[in-house]
């Protein structure tokens, strides 16, 4: 995939050790056919010289807001209009704070305010600065405003510590930029999604269920359609409209959701299990409404099938993504679930606290796949869904560069 040809990229560089990686990024962007203009903050110039970036980009590097010569040529407003996308890499904690405040106290911050093009930041900083609540709040605010946050990666840091805060490698940033311009990253792909809760009948009027509203799964269905996929949504009982372009089938309980998914999974390229499926159902369903004669009532429960694990275990299984809804040890539980269910990707979210997870408009996700992980900070589910679909499309493409198992199976049997 290369959607960067002829794209105009404005690369902002702020003052961190990782600024040296920007040189490689500029070189690789140009290799992919992009036109690159570089804007550096004053601090960035302490780490890498404008001359290096000028040589690599083939363009004058912009550094000053009040530079009469630059303003006479391509001034800051022209630059903001010129670009197809702005990427700030590395983005320091200080720059993110200024961006969150909407400051225009240097050329780069002013351009970020003035542009209508998509804006992405690739944070790089000490791990304690990254986890500081001030930085987390700034990022959550930026994400809510539509700023894309790419990375950081985790590992050894220049300061000698280890943890999250490393700038994503140039190749990963190129892929993200590419994904930004990819029209229909899932064009023609068949995506099967489960969403919402299940209801496990106790008697004709009562059931066991949970607080899932379906919002996360429905947002993913809408985002997958936007990305060009043919989407089938197996939905538990929710009060949401079906997103345009999505085929919806209703499932009341786990057994019917399981059957509906089994019927369709063989034709799917990608399966996304967002539904909060009840793990147990009453062993006996009373045919008449239970009477409250006794002081206590014992319900015997039996295990429901694991819909996601069953799909992942199919021969020619589609690319499988699941969620992990956790109230403790999120990372450990999510990693364990990915391996136990044989998933390509798992998205873990905190549940049980207000504002995220079940029945809220916002969420935050920790993604884990073989050899990789990424945090998607708190943002509206609609926005997270778009980002997640972009990541799924990329991982899917990496896993099946020659086509999906279904395509290959069809070719084999032709
Ligand atoms: O619907 P919303 O209000 O928007 O809330 C979204 C959400 C919190 C429900 C969603 O983000 C989420 O976390 N969904 C998964 C909930 C869940 O059941 O998690 P789990 O950790 O128990 O299950 C792990 C995975 O296995 C999930 O992908 C689940 O869909 C799947 N599963 C679980 C049990 C089962 N019998 N069959 C399954 O397919």
Structural commentary:
With 414 residues, the chain is of the alpha/beta class. It has two domains: 8-180, Flavin prenyltransferase-like (Rossmann fold); 190-413, 3-Layer(aba) Sandwich (Rossmann fold). Helix content is 36%, strand content 23%. The chain contains 15 helices and 19 strands. Strands 12-11-8-13-16-17-18-19 form an eight-stranded mixed β-sheet, sandwiched between helices. It has a five-stranded parallel β-sheet with strand order 2-1-3-4-5, with helices on both faces. It has a two-stranded antiparallel ribbon with strand order 6-7. Strand 1, helix 1 (21-31) and strand 2 (35-40) form a beta-alpha-beta unit. Helix 4 (76-82) packs across helix 6 (107-114), helix 5 (93-101) crosses helix 8 (133-144) and helix 10 packs across helix 14 (381-399). It is elongated. The two termini are 27 Å apart. The relative contact order is 0.10. Ligand PMT is lined by residues 194, 196, 212-217, 254, 273-277, 279, 304, 306-308, 322-325, 337, 349, 351, 357-359.
Do you know the CATH architecture of the largest domain?
Answer: 3-Layer(aba) Sandwich
The name of the CATH superfamily of the largest domain reads: CoaB-like
Query: For the terminal residues, how far apart are their CA atoms?
Result: 27 Å
Present as ligands are: ligand PMT
CATH topology of the largest domain: Rossmann fold
CATH class categorisation of the largest domain: Alpha Beta
The total strand number stands at 19
Poorly predicted spans: 410-414
**What about the largest sheet?**
8 strands, mixed
Shape estimate? elongated
